[in-house]
Specification:
Blueprint (H helix, E strand, L loop, with lengths): L6 E7 L2 H14 L4 H8 L6 E7 L5 E7 L2 E7 L2 E4 L1 H6 L6 E4 L4 H5 L4 E2 L3 E2 L13 E6 L2 E10 L3 H6 L5 E8 L3 H4 L30 H11 L4 H6 L31 H19 L8 E2 H9 L19 H10 L3 E7 L2 E7 L4 H4 L26 E7 L5 H5 L8 E2 L1 H14 L10 E3 L2 H7 L10 E3 H11 L1 E7 L6 E4 L5 E8 L3 E7 L8 H12 L3 E5 L7 E6 L3 H11 L7 E2 L12
Parallel strand pairs: 6-9, 21-25
Antiparallel strand pairs: 1-2, 2-3, 3-4, 4-5, 6-8, 7-11, 9-10, 10-11, 12-14, 13-14, 15-16, 15-19, 17-18, 19-20, 21-22, 22-24, 23-24
């Protein structure tokens, strides 16, 4: 259902009565939660939003968002938990297990076929047709998908485990998951009965990779049409036992990997550090704030598909890591102002920098919003247009246009020129002047000018005509049909606002008009600025969201919009509010 992007209709804070109704619905739908579980899932006072959206197939869905993550969604008056909720309550639904190879197809929109199930020693859970179920991967109890049983357990067994088993509604890595914090599934150890060692005797765990490949095809039998319709959002095929990125969060942990997560993060941090010094930092950039170095240089050198988290390294803090690099005499760090450290010198001839090999860029490394889209972002082509108002229909009706007709500027000029020539309005003595007949006078003159102005220069006449027409614009995204809208396109608005304790925040509005997802932009800015970001409904704007970043981050926002997204400067307002660089002493 969420394999493709959805359209948000509204995003509002929940009312007290709606919160109480939601609690009652959760109790009715999931009685095993208990009172304490319901209170934790639907808190009494914490912020809770209702997001109404349309899925790519037109289904109207209501999503409940708490703490920035979708926790529940409602479809046709039925309530469903998201994977974020199931990670906290893994035993909320009956659980069925499949192979890690199947996940990428589920994310792409395929349903789960019965040959793809792993039958545990204790047998399959008992469910009826239409029951809501959770789907997990072999080796981890954290659910990665939610689906509805297409048949009862007895019917599954009677069919010899053939046919469609579950209609999948929502998965890890789909667009609903992406609207949250995009965290990876936790590693939850399988229950004793589901341990792979105990199921070897029954033959439910094939060891042969070729057999597992066959299993992958069996699991997807009958789902090819839907896979073709939906783009696959999971990038790499992972064989059982192959080493996976630690950022995946334990979907298929590799017991043979000798490096711990902390050692891997240390290695990644040093790799990004050396890459940044060798390729991005120049002598003219020094002195360079350590926070700027991290946000603008180090993070941008992180390989695609990896996520750098200093807290998970042995250093825990950037300052501690930089002290280590200073002891190795790679850099020199000084506190130029109280509490603010800067890199003041770099030894670019240091063996560690000179011997560092710059990794080959991935073909998909240029994708915008750091993995939040399948395709690179391209700015829309925006063309100004003009609408014919009722007061000017007489001037345009001879050329076949009526009230509400949409014209380009060149067409308007040609129509006015042809009208003047056809009605012999060009001054015989001065070809640069146009005589005004009653129709032109009514269209371009003010009431006070009706009896005083009888002629106008060509440029003044054309300018006045364009000024009297109603503004409109055409937006054309690559590969999509152009969209014509009335009025003027709102620029991306960057403002600074004051919050409690005299704190400044940067607010960015109108991103949707340019095809940018506010949630994805917020995620990028959070990493670039190393500051907290929130996405909230824009005041006074229906179905529009705004991104709020802590501190004055106009410089980071402008670099993102102008350099990476390549939006024209004329469509961005507020760039002048960036903090001015401090004068060097």
């Amino acid at each position: 259902m969420f394999a493709k992007a959805f359209r948000v209709k509204s995003n509002t804070a929940i009312k007290g009565s709606d919160r109480r109704k939601l609690r009652a619905d959760v109790v009715a739908a999931f009685p095993s939660l208990g009172t304490d579980g319901v209170s934790q899932l639907v808190p009494g006072k914490e912020e809770l939003n209702i997001v109404k959206l349309y899925a790519h197939r037109g289904d109207a869905v209501t999503v409940y968002v708490s703490g920035g993550n979708p926790i529940l969604f409602e479809l046709e008056k039925n309530l469903y938990p998201t994977v974020y909720t199931l990670w906290s309550y893994p035993d909320l639904l009956p659980t069925f297990t499949t192979w890690p190879l199947v996940l990428e197809k589920l994310v792409g929109g395929a349903d789960l076929m019965l040959p793809g199930l792993v039958v545990p020693p204790a047998g399959l859970p008992q469910v009826q047709k239409g029951d809501l179920c959770a789907i997990v991967l072999m080796g981890n109890r954290a659910p990665v998908a939610i689906g509805v049983a297409a048949m009862s357990t007895s019917e599954m067994l009677a069919s010899g485990l053939k046919g469609r088993g579950f209609s999948v509604l929502h998965t890890y890595q789909d667009h609903l998951w992406r609207s949250g914090d995009k965290s990876s599934p936790p590693f939850l150890a399988p229950l004793a009965l589901d341990h792979p060692d105990l199921s070897e005797e029954k033959g439910s765990v094939p060891e042969d990779p070729a057999m597992q490949e066959d299993m992958r095809h069996l699991a997807l039998e009958g789902g090819e049409e839907e896979i073709g319709e939906n783009q696959q959002t999971c990038g790499k095929k992972t064989l059982p036992g192959a080493s996976e990125d630690p950022s995946v969060g334990g979907l298929n942990p590799d017991p043979t990997d000798s490096k711990t997560l902390q050692e891997q993060m240390d290695e990644l941090l040093q790799r990004c550090f050396l890459h940044a010094l060798k390729c991005r930092v120049k002598k003219a950039d020094l002195p360079l704030l350590t926070s700027t170095f991290l946000g603008s240089h180090v993070f941008s050198c992180c390989p695609e598909g990896r996520q750098l988290d200093i807290k998970k390294s042995s250093y825990k803090k950037l300052s501690k890591f930089l002290q280590q690099m200073q002891q190795e005499q790679i850099i020199q760090v000084k506190e130029l102002s109280k509490g603010v450290e800067s890199i003041v010198a770099v030894d670019w001839k240091h063996p560690r920098i000179t011997s560092f090999v710059i990794p080959e860029p991935s073909p998909t490394s240029q994708t915008v919003q750091e993995g939040s889209r399948e395709q690179p972002y391209h700015p829309p082509d925006i063309k100004p247009l003009y609408c014919v108002p009722a007061s000017m229909t007489l001037l345009f009706q001879e050329s076949g246009h009526k009230k509400g007709s949409v014209l380009e500027g060149g067409e308007v000029r040609m129509i006015v020129i042809n009208y003047a020539k056809k009605n012999d309005l060009v001054d015989a003595d001065n070809k640069n002047l146009v005589k005004l007949d009653p129709i032109l006078s009514d269209c371009v003159l003010e009431k006070s000018e009706q009896h005083t102005v009888v002629k106008l220069p060509w440029d003044s006449l054309l300018t006045r005509c364009l000024g009297k027409l109603q503004p409109a614009y055409q937006v054309a995204f690559p590969g999509q049909e152009p969209i014509v809208k009335k009025g003027k396109i709102c620029p991306v608005d960057i403002t600074l606002a004051q919050r409690a304790s005299n704190k400044k925040v940067t607010v960015v509005r109108n991103l949707e008009a340019y095809g940018l997802d506010p949630c994805a932009v917020a995620a990028v800015l959070q990493q670039r600025c190393q500051a907290s970001t929130t996405v909230t409904p824009a005041p006074g704007a229906r179905d529009s969201l705004q991104v709020q970043i802590q501190g004055n981050q106009v410089h980071h926002v402008s670099r993102l919009l102008l350099e990476e997204y390549q939006l024209p400067r004329k469509h961005i307002q507020g760039l002048e509010k960036a903090p001015k660089p401090a004068k060097k002493k």
